[in-house]
Design a protein that fits this description.
4-stranded parallel beta sheet; Rossmann fold; alpha/beta; 482 residues; GMP Synthetase, Chain A, domain 3; 9-stranded mixed beta sheet
Length: 482
C-alpha cells in the first residue's frame, strides 16, 4: 500500500504558505521547503544514498534538520537522528547498530562512514524523483532514551507518522493558522510526532528554537508567533523558576507530559494565558492518550485514548483489571500502522515488546469510571518494601508539593531488612532552605508509614536524558556504590 510521505505532504501544500521559522531566521514557505528538500535529496543521492539506506543526522533544531528529514523521505531512505550532545560511547552504540551510509553532523561521531556538514550535501536547483515507498516502510529509526539500558532503535514507518499527525491535528482542531513552537529536540519523537506531523497534515507551520531556554521560552514563542507548544514537566518547572520577561507568549494550548503539581500547572496557565493538556505516549506507542483540549481536562490524568488507540490495563496474568486498580498499559494495534513496527535488528526484543500486536509498555496506570487514565509508575520503578509495592510517583507528588522543593525523584535502594529502602533525591527552589528531617516529616504527615522516605539527598540537579526523563538508575548506582 503506497502512502504520502512527509516530502509529498510538503509538495501538496499551498506553496506560498509559511511552513518553518527558525528563531532569528527568515520564514520558509512550503514551496521553498520543497525546493530545499529536493536539493538535499539530490546531494544525498549523489553520495550513494538509496531507498532503505540509513542517514544519520546529529544537529540541533535547525532548518537543515528539516531538510534532511524530508529529503530521506523523498529517497525512501531512513532517518537516524541522535542528540548532538551525545558522548562518544553513545554515538558508537547507535551508529554500530544502525550502520548508516552517511553521517551529517557538526561534531565528531566516531563513524567510519563519511561525516559531512549540512552544507556539503546540498545541490541547489537539483531535483530527484520520489522513490516508491510502502506505507509500512521504515521512515526513521528513533532511539529510546536508554534510562535503564542501552538504547533500542524504534522503527517508525510512513504510516505511523501519518496516523499520529492526523490524530493530534483532529484532537486539537488544528488549522493552517496554527504555529507550533518547538523547543524540544527534533531528534525526539515528541517534536516529530505531535508537532511537526500535525502541522504538515493541516498546512500549519512550525517555529524552532535551536535549544530549550528556560529564561527565553516565553519571549521566543511570542516573537515567533506561536499558538501551540509542547513540553515536559521538568522544562515547565524551569520556565516558572524564571521571572516573567514582560514579553510573554499567549498560546491557546500547550501539551505536557510527566508529573506536574497542580499549583505549578495553574501558574503556568495564568502566565501564558494558555490551557495545559496532559498526554502520555512513548516512541513505541506512536499514538498518545490525551486529555480533552477544553475545561473538561483533569490535571493529574494522562487523558483518554484517542480514536484509533485500543489499550487495556492488564494484571500480571494479562487479564484486564477493574477500574481503580493499577495495571500495565498494553496497547493493541497493528505494528507499522497504529504502533511502531518494532526494534531495528532486534527480533527478540521486538517479540517481547510487540508480540501478537500488543505493545507491553511496562508502565502502570489506573482508570476511573469516566475512562480517564492516571499514570502510576514504571513497573520497574516500583519499590518493593517489606512486601508492599510503593509507587515512586506518589512519593514524588507529595514531596514535590513542599514549597521549598523544585523537583524530586524517589528510588529504591538495597535494605537488609525490608528488601528496599526509599531514597528521595530533591532539588530545592533557589534561595530556599530545608532539612532532610523536615522533608521526611512533611511526607510522614501525608503518606502511609511504609511509603515515607528513609533518607533524603539534596542535589543541585537531577540526572536527566536529553528530553527531561530522570535517570533513576544513576541515582541508585550513586547511592549503592562503595
Amino acid at each position: 500500500m503506497r502512502t504520502e510521505t512527509t516530502a509529498a505532504l510538503i509538495a501538496a501544500a499551498p506553496p506560498d504558505s509559511v511552513f518553518a521559522l527558525v528563531d532569528g531566521g527568515t520564514p520558509v514557505t512550503y514551496g521553498e521547503q520543497h525546493a530545499r528538500l529536493q536539493a538535499t535529496a539530490a546531494g544525498l543521492a549523489a553520495r550513494g544514498v538509496r531507498r532503505g539506506d540509513r542517514v544519520h543526522v546529529s544537529l540541533p533544531n535547525c532548518q537543515e534538520f528539516l531538510d534532511i528529514w524530508f529529503a530521506t523521505a523523498q529517497l525512501g531512505a531512513v532517518l537516524v537522528p541522535t542528540n548532538p550532545r551525545s558522548t562518544a560511547a553513545e554515538f558508537a552504540h547507535v551508529l554500530a547498530d544502525a550502520r548508516p551510509r552517511i553521517s551529517i553532523a557538526t561534531v565528531e561521531t566516531a563513524l567510519d562512514a563519511p561525516r559531512l556538514s549540512p552544507e556539503e550535501i546540498v545541490l541547489p536547483g537539483a531535483e530527484v524523483p520520489a522513490a516508491p515507498v510502502e506505507a509500512t516502510d521504515p521512515a526513521a529509526i528513533l532511539y529510546t532514551s536508554g534510562t535503564t539500558s542501552l538504547p533500542k532503535g524504534v522503527m517508525v514507518t510512513h504510516a505511523n507518522y501519518r496516523a499520529v499527525g492526523w490524530a493530534v491535528a483532529e484532537h486539537l482542531a488544528l488549522t493552517a493558522a496554527d504555529r507550533w513552537f518547538i523547543a524540544l529536540p527534533l531528534f525526539h519523537a515528541n517534536a516529530q510526532y505531535y508537532c511537526t506531523m500535525s502541522a504538515l497534515l493541516r498546512g500549519a507551520s512550525v517555529a524552532l528554537a535551536p535549544w530549550f531556554s528556560a529564561s527565553g521560552w516565553g519571549t521566543q514563542a511570542a516573537r515567533l508567533g506561536a499558538t501551540l507548544g509542547s513540553l515536559f514537566a521538568a522544562p515547565i518547572r524551569m520556565i516558572l523558576a524564571n521571572p516573567p520577561t514582560g514579553e510573554e507568549a499567549v498560546l491557546r494550548t500547550v501539551l505536557f507530559a510527566q508529573n506536574l503539581a497542580e499549583d505549578q500547572a495553574a501558574e503556568f496557565e495564568r502566565r501564558f494565558a494558555t490551557r495545559l493538556v496532559q498526554i502520555y505516549g512513548m516512541t513505541e506507542t506512536v499514538l498518545p492518550t490525551m486529555n480533552p483540549d477544553s475545561a473538561d481536562r483533569r490535571w493529574h490524568s494522562i487523558g483518554r485514548p484517542l480514536p484509533g488507540v485500543s489499550l487495556v490495563l492488564a494484571g500480571a496474568d494479562g487479564a484486564p483489571v477493574p477500574d481503580g486498580q493499577a495495571g500495565e498499559i498494553r496497547v493493541h494495534g497493528v505494528p507499522g500502522e497504529t504502533i511502531a513496527a518494532g526494534y531495528w535488528c532486534d527480533p527478540a526484543a521486538t517479540e517481547a515488546a510487540f508480540g501478537g500486536g500488543v505493545l507491553r509498555t511496562g508502565d502502570l496506570a489506573h482508570r476511573d469510571a469516566d475512562g480517564f487514565l492516571y499514570f502510576v509508575d514504571r513497573a520497574k520503578d516500583m519499590i518493593k518494601r517489606g512486601g508492599e509495592n510503593v509507587a515512586t510517583g506518589e512519593i514524588e507528588r507529595v514531596a514535590g508539593e513542599h514549597p521549598a522543593v523544585a523537583e524530586c525523584a524517589a528510588v529504591g535502594v538495597s535494605d537488609p531488612v525490608y528488601d528496599e529502602a526509599i531514597l528521595l533525591a530533591a532539588v530545592l527552589v533557589p534561595g530556599a532552605e530545608l532539612g532532610a528531617e523536615e522533608l521526611i516529616a512533611w511526607c510522614r504527615e501525608r503518606l502511609a508509614a511504609y511509603k515515607v522516605p528513609a533518607q533524603v539527598r539534596f542535589l543541585s540537579g537531577l540526572p536527566r536524558t536529553s528530553v527531561g526523563k530522570i535517570r533513576k538508575g544513576e541515582l541508585r548506582r550513586t547511592e549503592e556504590s562503595p
